């Protein structure tokens, strides 16, 4: 252990120390002035982001090859921290009006983000498991934050039981891989595979079990059942956090582990990934059609977007296109983050203090009465569908192109088909907002409007320079393999 | 004893755990089944640690036990909170969220 270890992990250390300080500071902030805590939380995330950005371009290993710092990790860490900032903006007013202003909210979110950063930077299977738990356990508590409401508790219990279930699969997979290779270090595993010094059946079984565990975390079909219930019952800002940041972390750890340690298993794992990705895209979108509750609709939408992200995983074994696919995935994640947070911001605006206002009918006339909010939601729905002039379009285009280049034309076609299906329910929201008359009520809050309008502008604005962003993503992953 | 005995035992433990999670309706029993799954993995770690004559697996088990304890703390607290509100923790009663 020396100084460079601490310098490389400084973002995580900053975030954790800040979280602990926040926990203490909250005790002295009187009720009614909790805005101070939110501001301090935002400041902490901004400081951490500064420290993270100072690492961009560099790379290295810390703590006896337990933790890696590279462009892939820096890109995703910034994404998690931006998500954290957005969630602070979304939850400040929400927590106040729902009477949920508990001191532990922001620290728990910080712990979860630290877990995401660790899981993205993990270079040893022990770290993978510990970081997964570190990111999940605070989330179980956050999902049950509104503990006066049975729905919130139910959501928390379901998330807890299924989250632990999936962790057990990851753990058993890690145990088998340890048995097969006599090591848990990603670097040594690939070395042992190169020497042929391993027990192949155990190794394949371990990798498959880990894939199942990660698919659970990602809410990929057939392991998706928990997601709609959990998103519906959890406090809405927490749902948005789970839909974006947790999904990003799930894809990140999947790619980190499989690209670094299991490229030799591509022939076995790619068909599995193919099936999961295709089912996730199709079934996520088909089930979304029947939803009338916006939180559930967005939950199924996020399931199907997990399927699109998994397309990058299918291409991982083909070294010529793996880099391109991962860059497209990073681009897609950025587009998905901006769009999804915007859509959740609109949902939070429309949600009433008694947790009503989440049905599709409550959106009737929204676009006519509040044109700004309506147009923003229109942009998000178009971007989620993948219509040109939005980030969502370029994200899908790059991902489908990488998938075709990897030789999986059918999968790209299934993706295209499922996007067509998704147009139906996304556009239904738009029709509801602009073509029906109604008396929608919204919650006016400057931060919510800022997130909604800001994301809408970013979704449209950044779509004008897609190649520059893709270049940036490609730069980020140069050192991944 | 040959390695395969340990592997078969742990695979059986893991399978019983999975079945318990899927079939049982009491969250406490589900939770015990989850612990069984974790301990099945622990058994693999310890057995292979002895087989390969390295300490990594033994160390891993300590981490797993600590994490499992943290999970117990959160899980039991949740179940107590739910029992206070609903006077039952049966999973079949958890059906407010659906669509």
From TrEMBL, chain B:
Primary localization class, coarse: membrane
Q: Which GO terms describe its cellular component?
A: NADH dehydrogenase complex; plasma membrane
- E.C. designation(s): 7.1.1.-
> Coiled-coil ranges per the record?
none
Q: Which principal EC class is assigned to this enzyme?
A: translocase
Molecular function as annotated in GO: NADH dehydrogenase (quinone) (non-electrogenic) activity; quinone binding
| Compartment(s) where it occurs, according to its Swiss-Prot or TrEMBL record | Cell membrane; Membrane
The UniProt keywords, alphabetically, are:
Cell membrane, Membrane, NAD, Oxidoreductase, Quinone, Translocase, Transmembrane, Transmembrane helix, Transport, Ubiquinone
Q: Where are the transmembrane segments?
A: 6-24, 36-54, 60-83
Q: Which InterPro entries match?
A: NADH_UbQ_OxRdtase_chain4L/K, NUOK/Mnh_C1-like
GO process terms (BP): ATP synthesis coupled electron transport
Q: Kindly give the membrane topology term recorded for this protein.
A: Multi-pass membrane protein
UniProt catalytic activity: a quinone + NADH + 5 H(+)(in) = a quinol + NAD(+) + 4 H(+)(out)
Stated role: NDH-1 shuttles electrons from NADH, via FMN and iron-sulfur (Fe-S) centers, to quinones in the respiratory chain. The immediate electron acceptor for the enzyme in this species is believed to be ubiquinone. Couples the redox reaction to proton translocation (for every two electrons transferred, four hydrogen ions are translocated across the cytoplasmic membrane), and thus conserves the redox energy in a proton gradient.
- Oligomer status and interactors: NDH-1 is composed of 14 different subunits. Subunits NuoA, H, J, K, L, M, N constitute the membrane sector of the complex.
The entry assigns this protein to a family as follows: Belongs to the complex I subunit 4L family.
Q: From the Swiss-Prot or TrEMBL record, give the protein name.
A: NADH-quinone oxidoreductase subunit K
Could you tell me which species this protein originates from?
Bellilinea caldifistulae
Q: Which gene encodes it?
A: nuoK
């Amino acid at each position: 252990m020396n100084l460079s270890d601490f310098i490389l992990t400084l973002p995580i250390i900053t975030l954790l120390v800040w979280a602990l300080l926040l926990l203490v500071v909250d005790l002295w902030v009187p009720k009614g002035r909790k805005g101070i805590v939110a501001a301090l939380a935002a400041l902490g995330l901004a400081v951490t982001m500064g420290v993270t950005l100072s690492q961009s371009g560099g790379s290295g290993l810390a703590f006896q090859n337990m933790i890696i710092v590279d462009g892939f990790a820096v890109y995703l860490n910034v994404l998690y921290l931006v998500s954290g900032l957005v969630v602070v903006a979304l939850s400040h007013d929400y927590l106040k009006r729902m009477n949920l202003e508990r001191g532990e909210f922001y620290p728990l979110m910080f712990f979860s983000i630290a877990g995401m950063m660790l899981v993205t930077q993990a270079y040893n299977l022990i770290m993978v498991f510990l970081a997964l738990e570190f990111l999940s356990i605070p989330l179980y508590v956050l999902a049950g934050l509104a503990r006066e409401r049975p729905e919130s508790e139910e959501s928390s219990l379901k998330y807890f039981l299924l989250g632990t279930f999936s962790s057990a699969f990851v753990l058993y997979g890690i145990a088998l891989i340890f048995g097969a290779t006599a090591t848990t270090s990603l670097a040594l595993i690939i070395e042992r595979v190169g020497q042929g010094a391993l027990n192949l059946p155990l190794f394949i079984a371990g990798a498959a079990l880990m894939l199942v565990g990660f698919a659970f975390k990602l809410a990929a079909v057939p392991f998706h059942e928990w997601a709609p219930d959990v998103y519906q019952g959890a406090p809405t800002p927490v749902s948005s956090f789970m839909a974006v940041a947790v999904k990003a972390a799930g894809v990140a750890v999947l790619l980190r582990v499989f690209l670094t340690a299991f490229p030799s298993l591509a022939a076995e794992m790619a068909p599995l990934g193919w099936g999961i990705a295709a089912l996730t895209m199709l079934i996520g979108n088909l089930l979304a059609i029947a939803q009338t509750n916006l939180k559930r609709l967005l939950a199924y939408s996020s399931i199907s977007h997990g399927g699109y992200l998994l397309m990058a995983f299918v291409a991982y074994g083909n070294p010529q296109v793996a880099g391109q696919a991962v860059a497209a995935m990073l681009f897609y994640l950025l587009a998905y983050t901006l769009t999804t947070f915007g859509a959740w911001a609109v949902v939070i605006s429309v949600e009433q203090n008694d947790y009503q206002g989440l049905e599709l009918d409550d959106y009737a006339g929204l676009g006519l009465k509040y044109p700004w909010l309506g147009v923003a939601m229109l942009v998000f729905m178009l971007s989620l569908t993948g219509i040109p002039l939005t980030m969502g379009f370029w994200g899908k285009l790059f991902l489908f192109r990488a998938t075709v280049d990897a030789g999986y034309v059918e999968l790209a076609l299934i993706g295209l088909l499922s996007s067509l299906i998704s147009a139906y329910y996304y556009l239904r929201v738009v029709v509801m907002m602009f073509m029906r008359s109604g008396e929608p009520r919204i919650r006016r809050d400057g931060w919510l409007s800022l997130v909604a309008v800001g994301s809408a502008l970013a979704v449209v604005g950044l779509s004008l320079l897609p190649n520059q962003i893709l270049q940036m993503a490609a730069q980020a992953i140069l050192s991944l393999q | 004893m040959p390695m395969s005995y340990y592997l078969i035992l742990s695979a059986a433990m893991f399978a019983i755990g999975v079945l318990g999670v899927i079939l049982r309706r009491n969250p406490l029993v589900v939770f015990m089944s989850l612990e069984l799954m974790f301990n099945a993995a622990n058994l693999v770690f310890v057995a292979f640690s002895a087989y390969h004559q390295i300490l990594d697996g033994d160390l891993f088990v300590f981490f797993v036990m600590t994490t499992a304890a943290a999970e117990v703390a959160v899980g039991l607290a949740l179940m107590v909170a739910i029992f206070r509100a609903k006077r039952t923790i049966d999973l079949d009663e958890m059906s407010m969220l659906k669509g």
